[in-house]
Amino acid sequence: xxxxxxDTKFMTAKEKQQVIxxxxxxxxxGCKRDHFTKAIYHHLINHCSFIAHYDLAGFYSTYFDQGxxxxxxxxxxxxxxxxxxxxxxGDTYWIGDGNDVCAEYYDINTEMCNVARQYxxxxxxxxxxxxxxxxxxxxxxxxxxxxxxxxxxxKPIDEVMVNDEGIETGEESEQxxxxxxxxxxxxxxxTLQVCGKRVKKAQAGQxxxxxxxxxx
Length: 216
Hints:
2 domains, two-stranded antiparallel sheet, alpha+beta
């Protein structure tokens, strides 16, 4: 696609074309490190209200190693609800309502949002899955650190009582809790892994956390 960009003092129309094509490739391939080019990085830190985070590697690690950070980064290029704000400065000057210098890059920055729109649903889903898996792994490590284990029989866990004093099983549940020292502040419905089984459905209410688990 041939984008219509304007030359500026520090970025020619041709350079803008190169950045937007690299940006499309980066998003199309799931924000892989191999596709995060120097041209994209320099444009982000010079014209999109991002700080450098030391260097290209530091920037990529800051925004793409964790799912929630990836979601945060992508939110700056989500214009479905109007002008998106800078996630680091909280303003919209990078894409609108700024001074004449900022305005020189509104054409490419707006197009970056338009390109991102077609990839956002899948990218945000991938980020959510990444964060969920990361949280589950962290939760498992923390449970082991504090000597907490949950042994089950053949039936899946049907109900667990959760309160500020710990976890207590339902009367009809088949599981046995060992060292049940987990509070509501330590347990998240979407990040819990029980006896090698992943929680696929959870409902909370009135101090109860009902779990449905799957084999990993």
